[in-house]
Design brief:
The protein is of the alpha+beta class. It contains 13 helices and 28 strands. The N and C termini lie far apart (about 70 Å).
């Protein structure tokens, strides 16, 4: 048997025994996400009555290797009493607990991560608790603030989004482990290759946007942007090895706020090597060769594999970021590509880095963490309520499609088409009726209504007197609703205010990024001076063995 499914430790999948048949078992796994598992259980199943929503634990194995675990959260019974069970992955367990208010002025990143998991364990049942396993993410001193967010949101925002990396959950000998890696932790010797195991492939990467040469442009001084000429042999152009494959394709890329050519050069290289491929995503069907050849590794989420297809002009190492697996057919749909976490420029906030202290890591690392959290608070406290207010305003506006239908129906009631009244609808109103479905604004609807009233006012009073008074009253009510511009005027004002606020935040962000770049330069200058002091004067400085992780610098005079 290739796949096993356990329900609270009991095997519930065996296609050789009708008492253990599961219909359509489908497993969805994804990097940094909970994933899901769903199946249908016939009434004759041995464990039909044993599935307990939220309480039971479901585990999935591939050739005795545990690949996923979670819990059932939804059970639906159909006409034939078959139970369709939907399960969420173990990452969702962290939605069950809250991180109470606490501020860490200076804490190691590893220590903060362990504290978050301990806080979770203190509120969770034993089966939903986790032991910290592999911590491959580089350690450093950080500033962190907990404020009653769920543990899930805390791990996402203050760990993954802030520091990057990949969180993996595993279950071994009944113990739940959580690992945090800087890079994808696994590799596979099985490629995804055309002519070998690639059955189908689609991708959303557009080659028209690729660049093989880049001109990085930094902050402008008197209208002239910074270039990399001073650190690139006088040339403002960085050329990648891809020129030999795709030819020379040059693109100018701006990096606002960058004021040092060394930093700009690094940004340009990163763009050529990684950034322009950040949105690369390939979905493919691939047969798992390991089923026939044990010399190959099976495909698993988190693996880096070689993806090679000459017809698709693809030859690159890519990570398996998601797998959709049918357990009854062993068919796997893979998603290969890059996992992009939010960068500093996407979550950074208004703050000040007022000075550069001798504790270099504290000035850079703690300062940047304060920047991230302060802007996150700013967006949450200032911008989010404005968006909510706008949404409420929009919600309060009359439904345009409903107004159109009411207007058309009212006119048809005024001028019946069934011949019961001798007064047929005037051609001028017929013309307005024909264009009402295409009107796309309240002002256009109001104009159409005014035209209708003008036409009616010009009709013979004897004709108007025989029109349905109820329909005329409805028409007047519609006009009253369209005639009140206050909601739309208020909405426009709110939009203008929000636009100005966002502009202010954008300007602050630009200033903050410039401060960050200056701080990096100041730190480099301090390190350079320390180097001169050590070589030319009776001063020496010692950096602890732990400096790489704690950022602490001690000075000793001699």
């Amino acid at each position: 048997m290739i796949y096993r499914v356990l329900l609270d430790g009991n095997d519930i999948l065996d296609y050789q025994d009708r008492r253990y048949v599961l219909l359509g078992p489908t497993l969805e796994m994804e990097v940094n996400a909970a994933g899901s598992f769903e199946f249908t259980m016939p009434p004759a199943h041995e464990f039909y009555d044993e599935v307990k929503p939220l309480l039971s634990t479901i585990e999935v194995f591939e050739d005795e290797r545990p690949i996923w675990f979670g819990r059932p959260i939804q059970i639906r019974t159909d006409f034939y009493n078959q139970k369709k069970v939907y399960c969420e992955g173990a990452f969702a367990f962290f939605n069950d607990t809250v991180q109470r208010l606490h501020e860490y002025q200076r804490v190691s990143l590893h220590g903060f991560f362990r504290a978050v998991i301990e806080n979770h364990n203190g509120q969770a049942d034993e089966s939903r608790q986790f032991t910290v396993g592999n911590l491959d993410i580089p350690d450093k001193t950080v500033y962190r603030k907990l404020n009653y967010a769920s543990t899930y949101d805390t791990l996402k925002k203050q760990c993954l989004n802030a520091e990057g990396g990949y969180i993996f959950l595993r279950r071994e000998d009944g113990v739940n482990y959580i690992d945090w890696y800087q890079n994808m932790p696994y590799t596979s010797n099985q490629p995804v290759e055309f002519g070998l195991n690639l059955l189908d492939m689609t991708g959303d990467f557009d080659g028209s946007g690729i660049a093989t040469c880049v001109i990085p442009l930094g902050e402008e001084v008197e209208g002239v942007p910074l270039t990399v000429g001073d650190v690139n042999g006088g040339s403002d152009l960085i050329v990648s090895a891809a020129v030999s494959t795709y030819g020379r394709i040059t693109k100018a890329v701006r990096f606002p706020g960058v004021v040092y050519p060394e930093t700009l050069y690094r940004d340009g290289l990163e763009y050529l090597q990684e950034s322009q491929f950040d949105n690369l995503s390939i979905k493919c069907k691939a047969s798992d060769i390991y089923l026939q050849n044990e010399n190959y590794d099976p495909f698993l989420v988190g693996q880096t594999v070689r993806c090679h297809s000459v017809p698709h002009l693809l030859d690159r190492n890519l990570a398996i970021v998601a797998i959709s697996l049918r357990l009854d057919t062993a068919e796997k749909d893979l998603t290969l590509g890059t996992v992009r976490n939010e960068k500093l420029t996407e979550i950074v906030a208004e703050t000040n880095i007022s000075s550069v202290e001798l504790d270099i890591a504290d000035a850079l690392q703690t300062g940047l963490e304060e920047i991230k959290l302060n802007l996150e608070d700013t967006i949450h406290d200032v911008v989010d309520p404005k968006f909510k207010d706008l949404y409420d305003k929009l919600y309060d506006l009359p439904d345009m499609d409903g107004v159109k239908l009411d207007l058309v129906d009212t006119l048809k009631d005024l001028f019946p088409e069934d011949g019961t009244e001798p007064y047929l609808i005037p051609q001028s109103i017929q013309d307005i009726l024909a264009k009402i479905p295409d009107l796309d604004s309240y002002s256009a609807l109001k104009d159409a209504y005014d035209d209708i009233k003008t036409i009616l006012s010009g009709q013979d009073p004897a004709v108007i007197g025989k029109l349905d008074p109820e329909a005329l009253a409805r028409l007047d009510d519609l006009g009253a609703g369209l005639g009140d511009p206050a909601p739309i005027t208020e909405l426009s004002r709110q939009l203008g205010t929000l636009s100005r606020d966002l502009g202010t935040i954008e300007n602050t962000l630009g200033d903050t990024l410039a401060q960050i770049e200056k701080t990096e330069g100041d730190i480099a200058d301090i390190e350079n001076r320390l180097s001169h002091m050590e070589s030319g004067h009776n001063w020496t400085h010692q950096i602890n063995g732990a400096a790489a992780t704690t950022g602490t610098v001690n000075f000793v005079t001699t």
